[in-house]
Amino acid sequence: METNSENIATDTCCSTCGSAARDNIEPTPVIACSLGNGFKKRAENIEALGQRALLASQREPLRLQLTYSKEALSTLQNLVAKEAECCPFLDFAWQHSDDKVDLTITAPKSAAAIIDELFDSFVAKIDRGIA
User: Fold this and answer.
1) What distance in Å separates the CA atoms of residue 126 and residue 131, rounded to the nearest whole number?
2) What is the pLDDT of residue 81?
3) 12 close to 23: Cβ distance less than 8 angstroms
4) pLDDT per residue over 14-45, tens digit each?
5) CB 3.0 to 4.6 Å from 66: which of 25, 48, 101, 103, for a disulfide?
6) Are 41 and 49 in contact, with CB atoms under 8 Å apart?
7) If we measure between CA atoms, which residue out of 85, 51, 84 comes closest to residue 66?
8) Would residue 31 be called left, alpha or beta, if left means φ above 0 and alpha means ψ between -120 and 50 degrees?
9) pLDDT tens-digit readout, 64-116
10) What pLDDT band is residue 58 in, cutting at 50, 70 and 90?
11) How many C-alpha atoms does 68 have within 13 Å on its Cβ side?
12) Measuring CA to CA, which residue among 51, 82, 50 is closest to residue 66?
C-alpha cells in the first residue's frame, strides 16, 4: 500500500500506479514485437493461414476484422495465444460459430506508425476480392 504526501494510505501498489489511477490515465503500452528475427517466419505462417482459410477482412485505421472458415479454429486459437504473447500491445478478440471464426485485432493509437506492417501479414495476398 502506498502513502501520499500527507502520509495517508492509498489503494495503489506504487507511486506510478497511484498517479495513473489518480489521473485516470492508462499506462502507455510498449510498442514492440518480442519475436525479433522470428517475425518473418511468423508472418509467413499467418499469410499461409490466410491463403487457406481467410473468407473476408475489413480494415479500419487501428482495427482489423477477419473472418476465417471454421476449419481454422484450432490454428487461430494457437495463433492468437502466440501473438498475444509476443505483441501484448495488440488486443485480440475472437468468436466462432458453426461455419466461421471472426477475429478482431485492435491496436493502440501509439502503434499507428507500424500497424500497416503488422496487419498486412493477416490479409492473404491472393485475389479473392478481399479488401
Assistant:
1) 11
2) 87
3) no
4) 444 443 444 455 555 566 555 556 667 877 88
5) 103
6) no
7) 51
8) beta
9) 999 999 999 999 998 888 888 878 888 999 899 999 999 999 999 988 888 88
10) very high
11) 28
12) 50
- Its pTM stands at 0.68
CA distance 47 to 11: 45
113 in the Ramachandran plot: left (φ > 0), alpha (ψ -120 to 50) or beta? alpha
Return d(Cα 25, Cα 17) in angstroms, integer: 10
Residues 26, 20: contact at Cβ < 8 Å? yes
Collapse the DSSP code of 8 into the 3-class scheme (helix H, G, I; strand E, B; otherwise coil) and give the result: coil
- C-alpha 57/C-alpha 71 separation (Å) is 17
